[in-house]
Amino acid sequence: MNNEVIITCPVTGSGIKKDRHTNVPVTPEEISDAAIEAAKAGAAVAHLHVRNPDTGQASNDINLYAETVGLLRDKMNKTGVDVVINITAGMGGEFVPDPANPNNGGPGTDMLSPVDRLKHIDLLRPEICTLDCGSLNFSDYAYVSTPDMLREMCALIQKMEVKPEIEAFELGHIWMAKQLMSEGLIDAPPLFQLCLGIPYAAEANGETMLAMRNMLPEGANWGSFGVGPTQMAMAAQSVIFGGHVRVGLEDNLYLERGVLASNGQLVSRAKEIIERMGARTLNAEEARKKFAAKKQR
Q1: What global pTM score does this model have?
Q2: 136-170, pLDDT tens digit by residue?
Q3: Hey, is 133 helix, strand or coil?
Q4: Nearest to 39 by CA among 268, 294, 289, 272
Q5: Which SS3 state, helix, strand or coil, does residue 207 take?
Q6: How does pLDDT run across 172-206, given as a tens digit for each residue?
Q7: 160 Rama class: left (phi>0) / alpha (psi -120 to 50) / beta
Q8: Cross-strand pairs, 51
């Protein structure tokens, strides 16, 4: 069991729409406020995506990232609230074959080069950025991240001195990460996030989590999450197996059946579960030290 637990809060994600939950953060102001709310509730890390404020859809706009992170850093300075900034680098991998010509991407395709997937990371230099460590079927599209793409991304992230959070959606992604480590492209100690319950990758249950945990390299820091109604059960399971916790509106909208949640409420619920298990939650500075994540700005 892990007795010193780091909570990460993914405050908005890219898939949940306002028509499902009116309080899902969309604008830079809302997303930065949500990160502060999560930190006040006990999250040490805030995981950020951005959205088009007019449509609510996921966005790769570097200016939206700059505005959101700028607002968050200003609020951290003014309020004294500290949180580790973790920014997605997972956008730009969606591929939907054109039915008439499967060699080409059809509607819904959003493919970017490794350099373009990391432009906002290079500009903003957060402590952590995600690294989706392989390709997979992600609901109704294919997410594409080839080994050579990953090699290029890892080299760039390493040069930026940002800690990659290796998002593993199935066992092969852990194998790929270990290969990248052996090539000197991921520094020790590695940080893994075991992503469970996303159709159609690893299922959200204890057997899957344990199998993935058992394949991690020695000395790895790791956490796990489950989407939807499995969120709190997987949070508790992760702590029991020695991992950290991720809860937030990117992964789940409900505090309980029929009751829509806020990020702060989800973090508070997870913190209560962790403490009732006899563990404690770490703060942002403790998380930086644990993950060997460098605060550059």
Answers
A1: 0.97
A2: 999 989 999 999 999 999 999 999 999 999 999 99
A3: coil
A4: 268
A5: helix
A6: 999 999 999 999 999 999 999 999 999 999 999 99
A7: alpha
A8: 58
